[in-house]
């Protein structure tokens, strides 16, 4: 861990984070933290003995050379290290770096500066401590003292530094603020009283939660466990690949098998002609078309059942790719009109290729369709709204930090598969960017935290008068096809 430069009264001392278990195994030091075990060989004896047990910071009792070696080691293990900021042995707060570049220079504001937490900063409870973080910053502070916690609350709103009270022990608020400012979690107002995170043209276009998710669903800026770590193995049973038929279902509609898939568009033509179509023919889609669309885009095309007693999990395979092969998505249909199928809300049973009636009351269906129509911005209503939900825990049982991002990535893969299949069937497809998660959970009878909507897609019969697929609309110029002449 890079030792912090001495500024003011606070002293920085590097050590292992309290959550890290550090044990000697023969001559090795074994560190267990942040979701993985790290075995360190060949450490100088005083360093490994000092760190074993994780009882202390790297203190004065270590010889200079060993202290430098311990600091360098902690610098390489930033995700396990912390800098305790103390005032006369009283811990005021701890600093943690979220990448290997853990250094910052404290930058205390002056009395006339007006300061405020960065617009992207957040305070949250972690392991019974209040932590201050910000996705723009690669630093985190664990606010272990009441004075650090109350100061963080004070500067949630713009405050003139000179108006802030002095902290216990004669510590100036500016000194603590200097650490947060140097680490990029606190802003000084510009001369006109505005803050850069509100006004900068790049920053103002980021929503708080978007930047948070972006910073934490890719590796590089984030020190918590990320990836296929199966964190709940042995604690919680994974969700099965295949769901049971809905027991309370009043009606099941067997779907016709699709005709043999021959004579349709080539892949090249399907890709070339694919477009979002939001106007529909007078005639509705037919049950055979709908069943064919569902079968070709979403059905379980194979299943794997492990032998009894095996540690392997059951799996399915579908026409679209899925993060981790988990196939956590479910599909629901709100049918306004379909030749051969009563209007209503249905669940598509992808294993058995059939529909299960969820609700035939027209009111919930109308509400779902109204949200979809608003999302297209077109006056005409689609024949069928397809609502994609995700069984979230199927993904989060396996993945840390990237579970929700993977659900959305897979949603995109489903969209494209549905677009191409619909294009081949000469239907009118359109993906939607918004759906009402609360409304759909209510209508579909789902617990929002276990399964709720993550994507929507509308479908209808393409109007024959619609521009021929691939022809340019007004104002558009078709560029080179890339095909050989
Ligand atoms: C993630 C995503 C969200 C979309 N959201 C909407 C939407 O809410 N309303 C809509 O009318 N079209 C939506 N679309 C369709 C796009 O507007 C469309 O793909 C884009 O304008 C390009 O036109 P094209 O699909 O005809 O080539 C969405 C597409 C995607 C992939």
From TrEMBL:
Residues 115-222 form the Cyanobactin oxidase ThcOx second domain. Residues 271-454 form the Nitroreductase domain. Pfam families: Nitroreductase, ThcOx. Transmembrane segments: none annotated. GO terms for molecular function: oxidoreductase activity. InterPro entries: Bacteriocin_Proc_Enz, Nitroreductase, Nitroreductase-like, SagB-type_dehydrogenase, ThcOx_dom2. It comes from the Bacteria. Gene3D superfamilies: NADH Oxidase (3.40.109.10). This is SagB family peptide dehydrogenase. It comes from Phycicoccus avicenniae. The lineage of its organism: Bacteria, Bacillati, Actinomycetota, Actinomycetes, Micrococcales.
